Amino acid sequence: MTTAAPVFKNSIGGIWQAAHDGRTFPNYNPATGELLGHFPLSSSRDVDDAVNAARLAFARWRLVPAPRRGEILFRVGELLSRYKEDLARTMTREMGKVLNETQGDVQEGIDMAYYMAGEGRRLFGYTVPVELPNKSGMALRDPIGVVACITPWNFPVAIPTWKLFPALIAGNTVVLKPASDTPHSAQRLVEILYEAGLPEGVVNIVFGSGQEVGESLIHHPDVSVISFTGSTESGRHVAVEAAQALKRVSLEMGGKNAVIVLEDADLDLAVEGILWSAYGTTGQRCTACSRLIVHRDVQDRLLEKLVPRIEGLRLGDGLDEQVDVGPVINASQIEKIHSYVEIGAREGATLVTGGERVAEGELANGYFYRPTLFKDVRPDMRIAQEEIFGPVLSLIAVDSFDEAIAINNETKFGLSCAIYTQDINKTQRAIRDLTTGILYINSGTTGAEIQLPFGGTRGTGNGHREAGIAGLDVFTEWKVVYTDYSGKLQKAQIDN
Ligand code: UN1
């Protein structure tokens, strides 16, 4: 260790502690290269301890009445609001996205805290009439046990809260493994949970690599549920491994989300939505727009408006309020983005703007990539099919609404999609025919709110949803109770 950068610890059973073997890894600012801190490079022994602490805490936490659990989440919401600015700055420093987006990220956590806190007084089950007299039937939600949450770097507070808060309100306990590019935001979140009065061991955090910490969590016999958000490649691996062990898995992975602009669209409105959803968060959202499907009649007019706006986006350190687009997360990500730009050029797409790394002046030590647009993209090109996770947008021109729908539906993903049209009949067809988990009409592909289900079709996930009431399904098991108060044996399907 070379500098005075702070050294952080895992939280296991409510106690902050170093990894067993004392190893650490560094955390850097992607805008400046500055060393921010050191975090434990944990091993399977640390995971064992964390899962054990969560298992012990489960025995008590499941018995805490859900409204009481909710009170803790209300306090978490209050504390997240109080620390919002500070947390947003911490996040911008380690993740890169601009301050108003990191504030939005924390806000999603606040929203989720209050929403799930309220669930403490609902957590609805239901009763249904049964076939026999003097007998009742009801279904209620049971917690499952220890939940492993494996979270990505692009929403360092929001995504952990989408998993933790429903898991907690339902009575589960958690081991959180945050992405190693954004450990500090997750560390602060866990500190805040304990400040709000969470009992020891109910949430544990173990820092380290996917290979070691992630693998150990997936294989641990006392982990009952795995909730994963990240790349398709890693998600597939989690699914295969967890299937062997018959564990419940929720996967939220990639997207190749399209904005469809029809010939009757309000083009000025469309430009705003495209800019925000393609280049906001430097394109690093799973909901980011990376395909622009445009009716050929309006392509030139749209480009006239759009290209100068893309070129006017200011790159820089997200802490600077004049900046629109921050850096990408790390060296391998910027290489991946650039390699896709080269692939696009080789495939015959026309580069309209961008297509290069920027490393001059103040940007010299960061991972900055010029917002990029390709046109003349064919739907079967790799840049139109594969998730790039960066500020690269591919324009595909079409001759009809039918063609736009078909192209939208022909990727292996199905998270989000947007359509710009003023024709109410077309919006109804869009609702019916677009294969997508989330559809936006006359706004961009990002900005899902936490009270509605979040997730996608096809290769985006495995059928589960996060957020909203549906978000509880991953973390609860339905238990059905029949009570026979007739005082005699009644045989269902025979006596009735
Ligand atoms: C993600 O990119 O993984 O809808 C989540 C949105 C945000 C969440 C994105 N509320 O863009």
From TrEMBL:
Belongs to the aldehyde dehydrogenase family. This is Aldehyde dehydrogenase. The lineage of its organism: Bacteria, Bacillati, Chloroflexota, Ktedonobacteria, Ktedonobacterales. Residues 16-481 form the Aldehyde dehydrogenase domain. One of its GO terms (molecular function) is oxidoreductase activity, acting on the aldehyde or oxo group of donors, NAD or NADP as acceptor. The keyword Oxidoreductase applies. CDD domains: ALDH_AldH-CAJ73105. InterPro entries: Ald_DH/histidinol_DH, Ald_DH_C, Ald_DH_CS_CYS, Ald_DH_CS_GLU, Ald_DH_N, Aldehyde_DH_dom. Keywords: Oxidoreductase. The active site is at E252. Gene3D superfamilies: Aldehyde Dehydrogenase, Chain A, domain 1, Aldehyde Dehydrogenase, Chain A, domain 2. It holds the Pfam family Aldedh. PANTHER family: ALDEHYDE DEHYDROGENASE-RELATED. It comes from the Bacteria.
